[in-house]
Design brief:
The chain is α/β, with parallel strands linked by helices. It has 2 domains: 102 residues, no CATH class; 218 residues, von Willebrand factor, type A domain (Rossmann fold, 3-Layer(aba) Sandwich). The chain has 10 helices and 13 strands. The strands form 4 sheets. The protein has a 6-stranded mixed beta sheet, sandwiched between helices. A 3-stranded antiparallel beta sheet has the order 1-2-13. The chain has a two-stranded antiparallel ribbon with strand order 4-5. Strand 4 and strand 5 form a beta hairpin. Helix 1 packs antiparallel against helix 3 and helix 4 packs antiparallel against helix 5. The protein is elongated and about 100 Å long. The two termini are 46 Å apart.
């Protein structure tokens, strides 16, 4: 909620009240013989000043009323015909691998790069409903589909903080270890059931090879086929630098860099199979800038209405200054005979 004037240029009329206040008119009339002595003996009358204050206050209130003070807000009317998009993000322990380079060309881990890119992706799609699913050994819906993108951002940031806190304490993370891609896709697919949506899609971001030995493993190709039957597109992005290095601890507790092990790199062939079943995009990003570029490409493919219509919901509040102005001028007229005196 905010306050504003509909016609602020009319506030220039306040100059008239200032002129009335500062101008001290000379009073005419005959002087009696002891007039000069009376002026010296008696204190000056404050009546004329009070009279001018009443008139100046009334004119100032009229100027404020003429400028039409308003109170209200600008309402953003989000079109409910946008797309539904679920972000399916990997939280496996391998996301700690620091083989990525952020936008400032500094070494960072995969989790930092993915979370920052996801926040930017959400910000670019103001008219879409967006939800969050995180997965590792298990999967969870962190945020259902919503137009409240500030809430989506808050969930992403909070999940990253919680994941790092668990890693620092020696735990495997919120969802244990493993990369159960199919379970993550299946969990997200349950949220994409609205047939009235202009388009439905999942954006999968993972850094590892699908862990088939998990007791609750779900074949991601089966999940992708289900998505195809529901007209849901899957875009599959891998993160990991095949030519990069990661920090490692030697037997003596020292830190050194080593090449990224093969089992810590995403399987592009598998991602292409998953995305290909729904005619989606599959690619691998080796740093934060490449990941941003891939998400920007998906942003272009998933067309959505870019205009955000707004309407102004303001109510006039000129009545009070108008009443105050009329009251002050009425008092000035009624009290003027009593307020005459030496100016």
């Amino acid at each position: 909620m905010e306050f504003r004037f509909a016609d602020p240029w009319l506030l220039l009329l306040l100059v008239a009240s200032l002129v009335v206040l500062l101008r001290r008119p000379r009073r005419g009339g005959a002087e009696f013989g002891a007039y000069a002595l009376a002026r010296l003996a008696l204190s000056p009358s404050r009546g004329p000043l009070l009279h001018r204050l009443l008139i100046a206050g009334g004119l100032a209130a009229f100027a404020l009323a003429a400028a039409r003070p308003q109170y209200g807000r600008t309402v953003i009317e989000r079109a409910e015909s946008g797309r539904d998009i679920m972000l399916v993000l990997d939280l496996s322990p391998s996301m700690r691998a620091d083989d990525m380079v952020d936008r400032d060309h500094r070494r960072c881990d995969r989790l930092q790069a993915v979370m920052a890119a996801a926040i930017d992706f959400v910000a670019r799609r103001p008219n879409d409903r967006i939800g969050l699913v995180f997965f590792a050994r298990t999967a969870m819906t962190s945020c259902p589909l919503t137009y409240d993108h500030e809430t989506v951002r808050a969930f992403i940031e909070r999940t990253e903080r919680q994941q790092r806190a668990l890693w620092d304490e020696g735990h495997k993370g919120l969802l244990s270890d493993g990369t159960n891609i199919g379970l993550g896709l299946g969990t997200a697919l349950r949220a994409l059931q609205d047939p009235l949506s202009k388009g439905r899609a999942m954006v999968l971001i993972t850094d590892g090879i699908d862990t088939r030995k998990l007791p609750n493993w779900v074949d991601p190709l089966v999940a992708a086929r289900h998505a195809k039957t529901k007209d849901v597109t899957i875009h599959a992005l891998g993160v990991g630098n095949a030519d990069g290095t990661i920090s490692a601890t030697d037997p003596f507790g020292g830190m050194h860099l080593q090449r990224v092990p093969r089992d810590l790199l995403p399987d592009l062939g598998r991602l292409r199979e998953i995305a290909g079943l729904t005619e989606g995009v599959a690619a691998i990003a080796g740093d934060a800038q490449e990941l941003d570029g891939l998400l920007a490409r998906i942003d272009e493919l998933e067309e959505t209405e870019r205009s955000v219509p707004t309407r102004e919901d303001y109510a006039d509040r000129f009545h009070w200054p108008l009443v105050v102005g009329l009251t002050l001028l009425a008092l000035a007229c009624l009290c003027e005979p009593r307020l005459r005196g030496v100016a």
